[in-house]
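Hey L., structure's done. Input below.
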Amino acid sequence: MLIWQYLVSIAVCLRKGGKDNVPISVRAHEKIRYDRVRETQKTGESTRDMWHKTDWEKVKQNPEIIQFPRQDWIFNFDVEKNAEEVYAEVVQKLSVS
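Output:
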């Protein structure tokens, strides 16, 4: 996980929740980030598998086949905007459950 994404997300949640709602704000932050972080971690597994099952003779001929994948959905995501947009909905769902 990119640490700045974590910090931005938790900051937005804490600001929106205020001092009296720190526990629910932290839970909301965890809920907001969970699915995205899980999917990001899965890309690490697929990259690991790709590198461990590589035909190194083919890599010598074409080094680009082993390049580290850079998924736009990971790096071009506005964490702050997302947290701002979904915070209230997430808190409401957490309060009901």
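Residues 1-28+77-97 form one domain. The chain has a mean pLDDT of 89.

-- N.
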